[in-house]
Every structure is written in structure tokens, then in C-alpha cells.
């Protein structure tokens, strides 16, 4: 089939939009951390762009989206025919979720899917803000992408067993958000709590950056969701509109919960609610009607507003609420399809309960997040433990107190002048002194 220039142009634009989401995430996460670790937090997102891009070109695309034959192995992982993107240039993508109507170069499809892999890895970093070794994070990003993300993408989108089972995941509620959220929980447990957690105030240091970041995420998410149709048609428009509707409703639901619970609505709340809505509508955006997108957004915004507090009840330090927003929000969106799915693409995908379907699709939509969540959690915990026992995953306590920016990167996010200098001098007799001297040397 011939390449469709309109589809190709749209997919190149969508790819750029999704790539923009990772710098947007860096702003969002960076603003939520303390001032002394903002650069490290942002570096973790940018490092994910570097490491995942290299791994994807060398073997990731091949493992996720090529065939390993007709046997049982192909249900779980792709083959090695496209190592180094061999043979991808010039070929025509023929479609995964439905029969192809419009076509694009396979290299464009590969680039689009690369941006998904990048941001999935970057999302995990928010769970371990303020206390992770940068080098350990770099190693983790490569290993986790290799043994978790690439196979899971194959399971759902590359012809693997979850896709064959009939799991519906339009743009990554399970593949991206449940996957990243479960891994974030595992790493938060491996690294332990931040020094002073629940005792010292650990408020976002720059809510302006948070709002800038969520604005970029919201903008880029239209490429994330609408681009996942891999064509320019009515479903593209449906995914686009549902993304906007669910996000706006979720942001409103979150700040209503804040007003009722705390007596005031916050900028952090409206930003977090928007992200919760974006996450929840991601698996459903091309399968549901706009009224259902409003319901999904309202549920996600309200539930996630309460879910972020689970870390205090259960005693794990998920620094930037990756679990409460991405794991919970992704699961809400995935499971909602068991009720609201109106436009399944191919057999054996089916309609939800509210559209005449039976319990079959609902059970599938529960099974997908459970399987992926458990797999990601277990593998991330093992990878994290191995790294921690070998090269160490957590920075020393004195470096954490001084700030990971200055001790790891020899930089600070802000030129605080005499204020910063007096802060270092005031701790001359404390644990910060050694870290400060090390950097000054």
C-alpha cells in the first residue's frame, strides 16, 4: 500500500508533541521538588530521553513491534529482525489495532512509539525524587525499559498475548501509566523514605514551574492520545475531544474535593487533577463517547485526590505522587472501558456493560492492569535491589541534606547569592559541611 502523506505529516507532528511531554514532565516534577533538588529531578527526565532513545534504536523497537515467530515466544516478546532499525527505513507500516486504511513509513511509527517509551521511564523518577543516585537511575532506566517496557508494549500493542486476549488500551493507560506507577512504588520501597519525611516541610518549591509543566503536558497529550489512532479520521477527532473533556472535568473535580475537604482550592490541585484526567482518559479516549469521558474525568479527579494520601497511611514515600495519580488513574481509565467502551476496534475486543456488552470485557480490563502492575512491580523491585546492593541506589544522607543538585551535579537551580552562602555557612558544624567542601574542592 502507498504511503499516505496526510497521515504521515500528522504522525510526525504527533511525535513531536509527545516528545515535548517529557520536558513538560521535567518542569512539572521539578517545580514539585524542593529547590535544592530541582536540577536533579529535571535531569532524570532528560536522561530518560538519552538512554531510552539509544536502547530503542538498538533493540527496543524490535522487541516491542516485530515478530519472534509463530510460537509461544511471540506472545511475550518480539524478535530481533529490526536490530538497529535494520530494514525499517523505507518500509510501510501496516497497522496493529485495526485493518490499515492509511499508511506511514515504519520509521515514523517507530519514532512515535519511542516517545511513549521515553516518558514511561521518566514518569517513574517522580517516586524517588530527592534521594536517588543519578548514575543508578541511568542504569535502572535502561534495564527496566529492556525487561519491562519493551515486552509489555509487545503484549498489548505488538501482537502479544494481552492484545490477543482483547485488552483495550488506546494510548497507554496500562502500558504507560499502570506500568510506570507500579515501578515507582517498587523503587520508593527499595530506596526508603526521604530524610525528615513527615517531619520536615517538603512542599513544592515553585508552583509556577508546576503549572508551566502541566500546560506542556496537556498540550503534548493531544499527540499522545489522538496520535494513537495512527490515522486522521473520526476516531482521531473523538480521542482529541475526549482528552480535553476528561482533563478539564478531572481538574475541576480535584479542586472541588480540596475545597470541601480542606477549605480551599490550590494551583497544585488543579495541576494534579489535570494530570489525573489525562492519565485516566488515555486508555479510553478512542473507545468512549464524550459523556463517558466526562464521567471518567470526574471519577479520576476525585479518587486520585484522595489516593495521593495513601502513602501517609501505608507508610511509603512516593515523593511526587506517581502511585496516586498514574497507577490509580491508569487503572481507573483501563477498568472504565469495561463499562463505557462503545467503539471496539477488532475481535475479540467488545463493548462495555453500558453499551450491551457482558462481563467479559470488564474482566479483561481488570486483568490487564493487574498483570502489568504486578509484573512491573516485581521486576522493578528486583532491578532496584540489585542496583542498590552493587553500586548503591540512594545518595548518602549528608548529600541528601545538602541537596542532590550541588552534591551530584555541582550546580544549583537558582543563584541564591548570599542567602545560599549563609545557608551553607550555618551548617558548617553539621553533616552538610562535608558535602559542601567536596563540591567546592
How helix-rich are the residues, as a percent range?
A: 55-70%
Query: What is the H/E string?
Result: HHHHHHHHHHHHHHHHH
Could you tell me the radius of gyration in angstroms? 22 Å
The tally of domains stands at 2
CATH class of the largest domain: Mainly Alpha
So how many helices? 17
- Largest sheet geometry: none
Based on helices, strands and strand pairing, what is the structural class?
mainly alpha
Q: Can you walk me through this structure?
A:
This protein has 17 helices and no strands. Helix 1 (5-32) packs antiparallel against helix 2 (38-65), helix 2 (38-65) packs parallel to helix 4 (134-157) and helix 10 packs antiparallel against helix 12. The model is unreliable at 97-101 and 418-441 (pLDDT under 50). The chain has helices at 5-32, 38-65, 106-124, 134-157, 161-165, 173-191, 207-226, 234-262, 267-281, 290-307, 310-314, 322-340, 359-390, 397-402, 404-409, 417-426, 432-440. The protein folds into two domains: 5-390, Orthogonal Bundle (Ammonium transporter fold); 397-440, no CATH class. It starts with a helix and ends with a helix. It is 66% helix and 0% strand. With 441 residues, it is an all-alpha fold. It is found in: Cell membrane. Residues 9-414 form the Ammonium transporter AmtB-like domain. Belongs to the ammonia transporter channel (TC 1.A.11.2) family.
